[in-house]
């Protein structure tokens, strides 16, 4: 489900997914994992490269405009240092790294099943 408007952004589990398994990752069901965890799983399975250990990085939604979700990549430890920026195009199903130059995004690979779970079970909206 995709919901985009001019209000404050949020990422939440959709009502339809609260009582069912979202998808599977091998033998482990996603189940009722919240959308922030699902977004982090999506990031961890992407081809994003960083000088930082990827398993120590977390992501969060920074902004939503039209079908583009701006995602902040931060270090989990210490001062929560921002180490990167991503764009997730929900309509085009494209993930790009815009850290070095937003005008020259780098396409990233990702797990399509995790993106499908995000899109089917989470709502991206801008709620300013």
UniProtKB/TrEMBL annotation:
Highest taxon above the source species: Bacteria
Protein name: Uncharacterized protein
Organism: Chitinophaga silvisoli
């Amino acid at each position: 489900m995709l919901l985009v408007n001019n209000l404050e952004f949020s990422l939440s589990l959709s009502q339809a997914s609260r009582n069912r398994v979202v998808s599977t990752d091998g033998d482990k069901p996603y189940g009722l994992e919240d959308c922030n965890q699902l977004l982090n799983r999506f990031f961890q399975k992407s081809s994003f490269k960083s000088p930082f250990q990827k398993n120590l990085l977390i992501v969060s939604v920074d902004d939503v405009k039209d079908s583009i979700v701006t995602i902040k990549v931060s270090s989990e430890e210490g001062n929560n240092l921002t180490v990167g920026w991503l764009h997730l195009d929900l309509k085009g199903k494209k993930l790009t790294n815009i850290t070095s130059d937003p005008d020259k995004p780098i396409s990233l690979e990702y797990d399509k099943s995790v993106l499908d779970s995000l899109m089917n079970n989470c709502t991206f909206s801008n709620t300013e």
